[in-house]
Predict the 3D structure of the following.
Amino acid sequence: MHIKALLTQQIEAAFADLGLQGSAVIQAASRPEFGDYQANGVMAVAKRAGLNPRDVAADVIAKLSGDADFAAMVSAMEVAGPGFINITLAPSFVAPSLATAIDTCATAQTVVVDYSAPNLAKEMHVGHLRTTIIGDCVVRVLEALGHTVIRQNHVGDWGTQFGMLLTYLEDSGNASDKLADLENFYRASKQRFDEDEDFRERSRRAVVALQSGDANALQQWQQFIDISMSHCQDIYDRLGITLSADNIMGESAYNDDLAGVIDALDSAGLLQQSDGADCVFLDQFKNKEGDIQPVIVRKSDGGYLYATTDLAAISHRAKRLEADRVLYFVDARQSLHFKQIFAVARAAGFAPEALQLEHLPFGTMLGKDGKPFKTRQGGIIKLADLLDEAERRAAALVREKNPDIEPGQLAHLAKVIGLGAVKYSDLSKNRTSDYVFDWDQMLSFDGNTAPYLQYAYSRIQSVLRKAEVDPAQLPREAIAEDEPERRLAVYIAAFNDVLQQVADEGYPHYLCAYLYELATRFTTFYEQCPILGSDDAQRTRRLVLAKSTGIALQKGLDLLGIDVVEQM
């Protein structure tokens, strides 16, 4: 059930019937005394019509009160403040939502989601965490709502680092099928590249040879890719990320299209030369001095750039994949790049106006010193090492609470709790903000953390076990009577609204905040409304509420990519 959409539709219909123009803005009420939802678009409508907002709000309420369908949705409406409408939902209207079904969207889209995108020839590090888990959460939500999602792992498999590696291995004669060795070769080649002009020039020629299809270069390059992607897939599998080898669509996949991109830009009259390089100049991208910043699409030596590949990718996604919407989960430092690429793609006709192109940036993971999160020695933290530490710390916490736990159960709980804590700590923060990585906070069983939510779920399962009932045999819905019951039921009913918001805006922290509030409301309900000791009717009703809360928690955490356990 999409409650906000239903309320919006009804209130805007009332505006129209009253001869008013405007949109209703429906938000969850900030405090219990304000009801369940507030409509706060009335003031703008009243201002446009030159009317008193409180009078308009009263007229809307009167109009809606005479509508039998709307009257069945709400138990109370009142004018508040300068012209808000407080709305309290009827328990009978909310009751069907206790079945916690996810409502699919009325108009499904084909959505391409570009996320993770590690640079190959080296291990994934903490800098790859946010794009990977944020992108995967949004993918899960979009699919749950019925959209067709095409995952695109745009791995960096075609750049300068491979020219450096090819040249270094040719000079040194080294070879290995281990990623650690490949990383050492990469570091050595990078040092040579920075210090040796001849090596730097030969590396650049190696990139051009690779992009031109040199057979020997391609063979060695494929070995690099296979070694690197095997490591990436291990990380994905460990984290429960839904990417697989079938989703890899790296820079190299577009190599055959790059010359066509240049030709299309030339045909559109967009291509200009600057210092021997092919560029696109668009008036909207000027620096502080008023000079237009070029988008370079082909270097003077004939090599292509990220911009060229990204334009080819947009064309591919628009024409071959027939996307309605393309989402890019790439860090905020690339914001200007994507603004330029989207603008060039529109100007060249690669992306039709109907295609939604959205860069969904994210901030940086910081250490407690406020600087990018690194090892104590100042090095980049490998993602595998971070996950190992998470499981180790979680195991210590579990063992402290239960010293006699079996090793197998301990290992399972450590993985579920540790990895869940890392993911949730990130996902619960506003995507666009930097945040401080804090082991103690993320592994706490109190507050807005994964362990708190996982514990809330396991406590619900404990209640159901103690009740000695088969949850499947409980009614699908129940009409709440006491206020803690009603407030819990209303919040369960809001599940689909939150999922729609995540799908529309790409902010997983909305779902995290919802789950935390749901668990908090369940705690209040559990403390104020005895379940096992109540009479038969109350007991059944409250067991239905507990079961529904557990289902919503499990589904919500699953959409975040986080597991639950029956006992903790």
User: Anything to note?
Assistant: The chain has a mean pLDDT of 93. The longest strand covers residues 74-80.
